[in-house]
Design brief:
heterodimer; A: OB fold (Dihydrolipoamide Acetyltransferase, E2P); 5-stranded mixed beta sheet; 17% helix; 41% strand; B: 499 residues; 4-stranded antiparallel beta sheet
C-alpha cells in the first residue's frame, strides 16, 4: 500500500492552494465555457469534455467572494465525483507535492464551518498552503457556500 | 350777359335801389312788429302778476272804498280806452285794468287812492309809474301806465342789414366791373361809335391821302434805320480787323504745321523707347530664370537622394524588426509547448497516483514535469535577453533616426533659405519687369495722346484755312454791299424830296 500523499499545488487569484491529487480526475488546459441562465454566480457554466458535460464552479468566488480576471490562461480541475461531474476553475497549476500524511498540519485560525472545508495545511517553499476538500464543496448547497467566510484561513 | 348789363346799367341801378329800399322797409316793419309782439306778451304777464300782488296786499283794502264816482269813472274809461279787460270791486273801491290798441295797459284805482310807498316802489321796479289827475271828478285817482323799454331784436336786424349790404355790394361790384370793361376793351367800340359810316366817309374823302402818308412814314423810318446802322458800323476799322484776323489765321496755320512736325518726332522717339524696353524685359526674364533653375534643381536632386537613403534605412530596420518578432513568436511557441508538457506531466502524475496507477509511470511523469519547468525557466531567460537586445536596438534606432531627420531638416532649411533668397530675387525681377511694363504702358498712352493731338491740330489747321478764305470773301462782299447802301440812301433822299 502506498503511504505517501500527493498534493496538487495550484493558484486561485493570489492565493496558493493545495488539493489531494486523488480528488482530481484530470486537469484541462483549454475549454469553451457555455454560460447558463438564471443560476448562482458561483456556477460559471458548462464545459464539454470529450462529449460529457461538466458543471464549472468558480473557486475564486467561493473562497474570496469575488472574481477578478487577472490572468488570461485558465485551468479546469475536473473532480472524481462521478455523480455530479463538477469542475473548478483555477489560474495556474504550479506543482505536485509528494508528502507523508504526518506533514499535514491542523489549521488553527478561522471558524469551524470554514475549517471543515479544509483537510489541513502544508509547507511549500517556506509557505503554508491550505489543502482544500473539493468533494465537500461539491456536496454542500451553493447558497450555504456563499454564506461561509474563508478569509481567515486563506489570508 | 355782360353786354346786356352794360346796356341796361341805369335800369340795374334803379332796381338795386328799389331792392335796398324794400329790404330796409321790410327790416323796419319786422322790427316794429317784433317789438309790439314782445311788449304785448310781456305786459300781459306783468299785469297778471300785478293783479295777484294787489289781491295779496294789505294796502289795497285801505285804499279802495266803494262809493261815489266809480260808475262815472267807468263810463269815462269806456269812452277813452278801447277795451276794459277787467274790473274788480273790492269793498268800496274798484280796480280797473284797461287796454289801448297800441298795447299799453292801465291800472286804475278809483276813489281816494293813496298807495303806500312800498307799493309804489314795487311798481316802479318794473314799470314806468306816473300820477295823472283826473279832470272830470273832484276825487282823484292814480293812473299807472305800463310801457316797457324799447328792446330791438338784434339778430333779426343784423340779418336784414346784411341782406341789404349784400345787395348793395353786389350791385355796385357789377357796376364797377362793367365800368372797367368799358375803359379796357374795345369790343363795344362799333356799337358805341358808328365806325362803318366813318370808314365809308374816309374812303371817299381822306383814305387815299392817309395811305400815302403812312407809306411815306414807313419809308422814312426805314431810311432812318439804315442810316443809323451805317453810322454804327465803322467800315474801315472792320476792314483792318479783318486783315489782322486773316494774318493771324495764316500764322496759326503755320504754327499748326510746326506743331505737327514736332509731334511726329516725339511719337517716333517714343516708339524707339518702347522697342528698347521690350528688349530689356526679355533679357531680364531670361537672366532671372537661368540662375534660379540651376540652384533649385541641384538642391532638389540632393534632397531626393537623401529621402531614398532614409527609406532604405527604414526598410532594413523593418526587416530587423520582423526577424526579432519571428524569434519572439518562436520563443512563445516554446513556452506554450513547455506549458502543455507541464500539464501532460501533471495529468500523468494524476493518472499514476490512482489506485491502479503505475509507479514507474509516475517517475517518468515527475521527470517530464521537471523538464518542462526547466524549459519554462530557460525560455524566460531567453525572453529577457531578447528584451534587452530589442531595447538597445530601439535606442540605437531612435538615435540614428533623429540624426537622419536632423540632417534632412537642415538640408531642407538650407534649400528653403536658398529658395527664399531666389524668391526675393525673383520678386525683385518681377517688380522691375512690372515697372518696366508700366512705363511701357505710359509710353503707349503718351504716343496715342500725341497722335490724337496731332489729329486735332490738323483739323484746326484745316478750319483756320477755310476761315481765312471765308474772311477774304466776306471782305469783298462787304465792300459791294456798302456801295449798294450808299446808292439806296441817295435814292431815298430823292424820294423824300419828291414827297
Amino acid at each position: 500500500m502506498r503511504t505517501n500523499v500527493e498534493i496538487l499545488v495550484f493558484r486561485v487569484g493570489e492565493t496558493i492552494l493545495g488539493v489531494n491529487i486523488r480528488e482530481i480526475k484530470e486537469v484541462l488546459g483549454e475549454s469553451k465555457i457555455y454560460p447558463l441562465p438564471n443560476v448562482s454566480e458561483i456556477i460559471l457554466g458548462n464545459i464539454n469534455v470529450r462529449g460529457t458535460i461538466w458543471v464549472l464552479l468558480d473557486l475564486k468566488r467561493i473562497l474570496l467572494g469575488e472574481n477578478k480576471d487577472g490572468s488570461k490562461k485558465k485551468y479546469f480541475l475536473l473532480t472524481k465525483d462521478r455523480e455530479n461531474k463538477v469542475a473548478f476553475l483555477c489560474d495556474e497549476i504550479i506543482d505536485i507535492l509528494d508528502i507523508t500524511p504526518g506533514e499535514i498540519q491542523r489549521i488553527e485560525n478561522g471558524n469551524k464551518k470554514a475549517k471543515s472545508f479544509f483537510l489541513g495545511q502544508v509547507y511549500y517553499n517556506n509557505r503554508v498552503i491550505p489543502i482544500i476538500n473539493l468533494k465537500k464543496i461539491t456536496q454542500t448547497d451553493l447558497d450555504k457556500l456563499s454564506e461561509i467566510n474563508f478569509e481567515e484561513i486563506i489570508r | 350777359m355782360k353786354k346786356y348789363i352794360f346796356d341796361n346799367f341805369k335800369k340795374i341801378v334803379v332796381i338795386s335801389a328799389v331792392l335796398i329800399f324794400l329790404a330796409s322797409f321790410l327790416f323796419f316793419l319786422t322790427l316794429s312788429d317784433y317789438q309790439r309782439d314782445r311788449l304785448l306778451l310781456e305786459e300781459y304777464k306783468l299785469s297778471h302778476r300785478l293783479i295777484s300782488q294787489i289781491f295779496d296786499h294789505n294796502d289795497i283794502e285801505k285804499l279802495i272804498n266803494h262809493g261815489e264816482g266809480s260808475e262815472y269813472i267807468l263810463e269815462k274809461l269806456n269812452s277813452s280806452f278801447d277795451s276794459i279787460e277787467k274790473s274788480f270791486s273790492l269793498g268800496r273801491r274798484d280796480v280797473i285794468l284797461a287796454e289801448k290798441k297800441n298795447g299799453a295797459f292801465f291800472l286804475i284805482f278809483v276813489k281816494g287812492m293813496n298807495p303806500s310807498k312800498e307799493f309804489k316802489k314795487r311798481i316802479k321796479d318794473d314799470f314806468n309809474f306816473r300820477k295823472i289827475p283826473f279832470k272830470g271828478g273832484k276825487k282823484y285817482f292814480l293812473l299807472i301806465r305800463f310801457t316797457k323799454k324799447f328792446y330791438p331784436s338784434f339778430p333779426k336786424a343784423l340779418l336784414f342789414s346784411f341782406v341789404i349790404l349784400f345787395f348793395v355790394i353786389t350791385s355796385f361790384w357789377i357796376v364797377f366791373k362793367e365800368r372797367e370793361k368799358k375803359f379796357d376793351v374795345f369790343e363795344n367800340i362799333e356799337r358805341l361809335l358808328p365806325i362803318k359810316d366813318l370808314e365809308g366817309k374816309l374812303k371817299r374823302e381822306l383814305g387815299f391821302y392817309r395811305a400815302i402818308e403812312a407809306y411815306i412814314r414807313k419809308v422814312n423810318e426805314l431810311v432812318l434805320s439804315i442810316s443809323t446802322y451805317i453810322e454804327q458800323v465803322n467800315l474801315e476799322n472792320y476792314k483792318e480787323k479783318m486783315k489782322e484776323i486773316y494774318e493771324f489765321s495764316l500764322k496759326l496755320y503755320d504754327d499748326g504745321d510746326k506743331i505737327l512736325a514736332s509731334g511726329d518726332e516725339v511719337s517716333s522717339e517714343i516708339k524707339s523707347i518702347l522697342e528698347k524696353t521690350d528688349k530689356n524685359l526679355e533679357t531680364l526674364g531670361e537672366l532671372s530664370k537661368k540662375n534660379l533653375k540651376d540652384v533649385l534643381d541641384k538642391g532638389r536632386t540632393f534632397l531626393e537622394e537623401l529621402d531614398l537613403s532614409i527609406q532604405k534605412i527604414d526598410e532594413t530596420d523593418n526587416e530587423l524588426r520582423n526577424l526579432l518578432n519571428n524569434s519572439r513568436n518562436a520563443i512563445n511557441n516554446i513556452v506554450e509547448i513547455a506549458e502543455q508538457t507541464h500539464l501532460i506531466s501533471i495529468n500523468a502524475a494524476i493518472e499514476a497516483s490512482g489506485e491502479e496507477g503505475n509507479k514507474r509511470f509516475s517517475v517518468v511523469a515527475g521527470e517530464m514535469r521537471k523538464l518542462s519547468v526547466e524549459i519554462k525557466n530557460a525560455t524566460v531567460v531567453i525572453q529577457n535577453s531578447f528584451d534587452i537586445v530589442e531595447k538597445s536596438f530601439n535606442k540605437e534606432r531612435l538615435i540614428l533616426n533623429d540624426a537622419l531627420k536632423e540632417s534632412q531638416n537642415r538640408l531642407k532649411e538650407l534649400l528653403n533659405a536658398v529658395k527664399e533668397s531666389s524668391d526675393k530675387r525673383e520678386s525683385l525681377f518681377r517688380n522691375l519687369t512690372l515697372e518696366l511694363r508700366e512705363t511701357k504702358f505710359l509710353l503707349n498712352n503718351l504716343h496715342s495722346k500725341v497722335e490724337a493731338k496731332k489729329k486735332v491740330i490738323s483739323d484746326i489747321n484745316f478750319f483756320v484755312k477755310t476761315l481765312s478764305e471765308k474772311i477774304a470773301n466776306l471782305n469783298n462782299s462787304y465792300e459791294k454791299s456798302f456801295s449798294l447802301l450808299q446808292r439806296i440812301e441817295k435814292k431815298v433822299s430823292e424820294v423824300k424830296k419828291n414827297v
